[in-house]
Specification:
Layout: E1 2-7, H1 14-23, H2 28-35, E2 44-52, E3 55-63, H3 71-78, E4 107-108, H4 109-117, H5 123-144, E5 152-153, H6 159-174, E6 177-182, E7 185-189, E8 192-194, E9 197-199, H7 204-209, E10 215-221, H8 227-236, E11 246-255, E12 265-273, E13 283-294, H9 302-311, E14 314-323, E15 329-337, H10 342-352, E16 359-367, E17 370-377, E18 380-388, E19 394-398, H11 400-410, H12 414-426
Parallel strand pairs: 1-6, 7-10
Antiparallel strand pairs: 1-12, 2-3, 4-5, 8-9, 11-12, 13-15, 13-16, 14-15, 17-18, 18-19
Helix pairs in contact: 1-6, 2-6, 4-5, 5-6, 5-8, 9-10, 11-12
Length: 429
């Protein structure tokens, strides 16, 4: 079992991630043979060695002649100094707006999932690639005020981006990487020019995909992290902003097309995780625990306080009955969150309860190694949380919100859906 760490030195794009894996030694020929089982034709992969600010790197490009943009579009986009010089249909090169180019094919989420499912890729790769696109569809739906099924994929739904996502998942499988980590995300300045006007940097869908990920402003004009990269890392990487303890075995650099004052590369390090023997293979992280005493609030208001705290980034919220001064019955509202969300969660508790203050303390915790994957059932996709217990035994937990949504859509009790999913899990590997 290996771990991988993605370091966004000058940002990240789908092809930069793929290029870094090839650069560190993943055999492109073997991966391309598996990529050819994806039922889409007319693409080829080209790689070249380049130097970015003194760092040698691999530039990888998925070329799809039938989906290239006309030259005048390239010239127009280059004038706006987009971070990775992307042509909007190739996430390889610069900004990522998701709009329609006349005459270009568009795809729904179901179309892309069908393409992936019909391939000869392993079940692990299919699950991971499908999860990336589902997360992307959810982000687009929130931004556009639409449903997931109604979202049309344009640029990131093109063949090159489908190949980029699958190539990254294949590389992780080839390297036997169980856990993927990533650095904080560099964010450039300036606006992003798109077909519908000028947009903030990063664009709305990209920023939505980076919820909960630490962002680092850098003095570079342009879009540094593309939507495809944000979807891949936001879906597959755990504890963004955290570098794992590891024994380095391989290092690779993937290059973007543009040149900045900083090296426009993504660095990926792969190696063996270093585990604390005393911890028995458990992991640890740091969280913030928040508490507020409340003795004068209508109990009906707590539901709104819960929703506000969870919306601000809390991992969990709870109520504890206590007795305060003068024997008053009261409630302690508690919450736990990652450190970067502490201020927002505290503000939510102050605004949505009657408390005058919120106590905060940083605490270390031991946690089971875990990852989230998607299980396809006849009634829809369900997220499964997989955690590894000491000794290697794996625990599988079904995401309650997904089960509740499926049960509501079908008009059946939750326990009926749970039993059906458990039956699918028995044959799931």
């Amino acid at each position: 079992m290996k771990v991988a760490y993605v370091e966004m030195v000058g940002g990240a794009a789908g092809n930069m991630l793929a290029g870094a894996f090839v650069d560190l030694g993943v055999p492109l020929e073997a991966l391309e043979a598996q990529l050819r089982t994806i039922p889409v034709d007319g693409w080829r992969i080209e790689t070249s060695r380049v130097v970015k600010r003194g760092i040698a790197a691999t530039y990888l490009d998925v070329i799809v002649p039938g989906e290239d943009l006309p030259a005048e579009h390239h010239e127009h986009e280059h004038q706006h100094e987009h971070g990775h010089d992307h042509d909007h249909d190739h996430d390889h090169d610069h900004g990522n707006d998701h709009h329609h180019h006349e005459g270009r094919p568009t795809r729904h989420l179901a179309d892309i999932l069908e393409i992936v499912e019909r391939s000869g890729l392993s079940q692990r790769v299919k699950r991971q690639a499908g999860a990336v696109y589902r997360r992307l569809a959810e982000a687009e739906a929130r931004v556009h005020g639409a449903t997931v099924d109604a979202i049309h994929f344009h640029e990131v739904g093109q063949i090159d981006a489908i190949v980029d996502v699958a190539l990254t998942c294949l590389a992780l499988e080839h390297l036997n990487v169980e856990h993927l980590y990533c650095s904080d995300v560099p964010i450039g300045n300036g606006e992003i020019a798109m077909a519908h006007g000028r947009y903030p940097n990063p664009p709305p869908a990209t920023l939505d995909l980076l919820r909960g990920v630490p962002l680092r402003p850098v003095d570079v004009r342009g879009e540094l992290v593309t939507t495809t990269a944000a979807a891949i890392l936001g879906t597959l990487a755990k504890q963004p902003g955290t570098r794992p303890a590891m024994r380095v075995e391989a290092i690779g650099y993937g290059a973007g097309r543009s040149d900045f004052a900083i090296p426009n590369v993504t660095r990926i390090t792969v190696g063996e995780p270093l585990e604390d023997d005393a911890a028995g293979g458990l992991e640890h992280d740091e969280v913030v625990v928040l508490e507020a005493n409340v003795d004068d609030m209508d109990p009906r208001w707590f539901e709104g306080a819960f929703e506000a705290a969870l919306g601000a980034g809390a991992n969990d919220v709870w109520l504890t009955p206590v007795h305060m001064k003068k024997s008053r019955p009261a409630i302690v509202v508690g919450a736990i969150c990652q450190p970067q969300h502490a201020a927002a969660v505290a503000r939510a508790l102050l605004e949505h309860t009657t408390t005058l203050g919120v106590r905060m303390s940083r605490q270390e915790r031991m946690i089971l190694p875990r990852r989230v994957e998607a299980l396809q059932t006849p009634h829809g996709s369900v997220r499964i949380k997989l955690s590894r217990l000491p000794g290697g035994r794996e625990r599988r937990t079904v995401e309650y919100d997904d089960v509740r949504a499926l049960a509501a859509a079908r008009g059946v009790p939750i326990e009926v859906v749970v039993r059906e999913i458990e039956a699918h899990l028995e044959g799931w590997s």
